[in-house]
Every structure is written in C-alpha cells, then in structure tokens.
Specification:
It is a single chain. The protein folds into 2 domains: about 100 residues, STAS domain (Transcription Regulator spoIIAA); about 90 residues, no CATH class. Helix content is about 55%, strand content about 10%. The chain contains 8 helices and 6 strands.
C-alpha cells in the first residue's frame, strides 16, 4: 500500500522523484505486484503526485500486476476524471474496499486480529498466578509439584498466545499482548526457579524463649536434639 499525504503537494518534483526511487524498485522486484494507492488523506492533488501515480501504474502493468486507487474526496476524484485516469484505473471509495479487492486484510480485520489470542493468553496467565499462589500457600491443599506445573504450564500458554497477539494485532491488542507477555515471562521464570529447588518438605524452625540459668547467663535452646551424658 502506498499512502499519499497532503504535504506531498507542497514539495518539489525532485523530492517526489526520490520517493518514487524508493517505491518503484520494490515493485519491480515482485513478479506480479498488487498495489493499493491510498489518496483518502488528500483534499487536493497536484500534478507531481499524479505523475508519480502514473509511474507506479506503468511499473505495475509492466509486471502484469494490479493497482487500485482508493479515493474518498470529490475534488481528487474530479482531478482523476479530468485527466481521463478514472476510466483507466480501478477506483475504490475507501481504503478497506481497495484492500478487499486485492484480497488483503482490511484495517478492521487487522484491529480484530489477536483479540482471541489475548483471551487465551490471559487465561494462561491466571492459571500460572494460581499455581504461584498455591506453591507458597499451604492452605490451598495443592501438592508443590502440581502448583509448579500450573505455574510453568500457564506461563508458557500465556507467553505463546501473547506473543502471537503481539505479532498479528494492532493498537490496543498489541498493548494488552505486551503486558500479558511481560507478566507471563515473570511467572514462568519464577516457576522454573521453584522447579529447580530441592524436593522435600520445607524445614520449619520454631524458636523458644531463652531460659535463665543463673544471674547474667542465658542458654538458648538448640534446634537439634543433643544427647545428654551423666556427669
């Protein structure tokens, strides 16, 4: 997609030629390019911009490709009609219509992409969080190995689907995917750390108050029992 912005009407032809120097070689590399020229941001189109689109059209037709021009403004449409180009070029009334004609995902489809992946990622995040809480809270009644399994498995699920949403989504979808991804990685690393700890019951040490033996002398109770011997 090649989008034309209003400031292109104000720059000299030499600068527009430089823009064409970046676009045309990429089109020539494709065996059969499909190009959407988006003019929907324009309220007026100068001759230099029009000449660049003509060059794009010639390159696309030489490569047996297809070019669609998306135009939303009547004044721009009048320029195309007076130049006789509206009868030659395929004109779409919006960007999404042009994308649909080319068989490409529309802007709305891109915004929706990644939404369901985020839902699964959040579910995995919640599973991992419950496993994390259960590992450090005996009242949950969940075995440590099961709690670690929930934490690691949920973290992997959250990480994978959040990354998917981040790569395919746009706007808020990517923002949510990024946040879920970061938290999932943190919980996943904590789960791996817990997994690496030695198995067995966690030691519980109870302290007893010191007892006085004689004035100014205190003896602390020992944690390990000591066998007594007769004097």
């Amino acid at each position: 997609m090649v989008s034309f912005l209003p400031h292109l009407n104000e720059i000299p032809w030499s600068e527009i030629e430089k823009v064409g120097g970046h676009i045309l070689p990429k089109l020539q590399e494709s065996p059969s390019p499909g190009v959407l020229v988006d003019l929907c941001a324009l309220k007026y189109m100068g001759s230099a911009s029009l000449a660049l689109i003509v060059r794009i059209y010639k390159t696309v037709t030489e490569k047996r490709g297809r070019m669609i021009v998306a135009n939303c403004d009547p004044m721009v449409g009048e320029v195309l009609a007076k130049a006789g180009l509206a009868k030659i070029w395929e004109i779409a009334s919006s960007r999404d219509e042009g994308l649909r004609r080319l068989g490409l995902p529309t802007s709305e489809a891109v915004r929706r992409a990644g939404g369901w992946q985020n839902l699964i990622a959040i579910a995995g995040l919640l599973i991992s969080a419950v496993g994390f809480a259960a590992y450090y809270t005996p009242s949950f009644g969940l075995a440590p190995t099961a709690a670690i399994g929930m934490q690691v498995g949920g973290g992997l699920l959250g990480f994978g689907f959040a990354l998917w949403a981040l790569l395919e989504g746009a706007g808020p979808v990517r923002t949510i995917g990024t946040m879920v991804l970061v938290v999932s990685v943190a919980l996943l690393l904590l789960g791996v750390f817990n997994l690496a700890q030695p198995t067995g019951a966690k030691p519980v040490v109870t302290a007893e108050p010191a007892r006085s033996v004689s004035k100014g002398v205190f003896v602390l109770n020992s944690i390990a029992p000591v066998a007594s011997h007769p004097c």
